[in-house]
Predict the 3D structure of the following.
Amino acid sequence: MNFGPGGRPIYMQRDEGAATVAIRHGDTELTTWPLAGSECPDLTVVDELARLVLTARRAGYTVVLHDPSPTLLGLLDLCGLGPTLRVEMRGQPENLEQPCIEEVVVADDLPVGDLDDLDGPR
């Protein structure tokens, strides 16, 4: 366990689940396995994926990442690997997302530009 200022323990936030890697040739999925370390991703996970994508492409295969966490996706994009991977989401909507809910706009709401007068006289 790591400790921060004042000797307090530092807890790393874990994402909800492990992503799954799949190797495809055309439309045929040849094999899948859970991506080790994807629950709490770091640069080691990104390095392993980068090497796998390079090897698979040289052999004519495609790497597909199923249900990666937002943290893993952000890390892949930060490292420039996001565009090279095919990502498929198969899980349920996130906790805050509700399917088939649309935003409602009330006609009496003032646009942002008209709210400047709320600060008072200048």
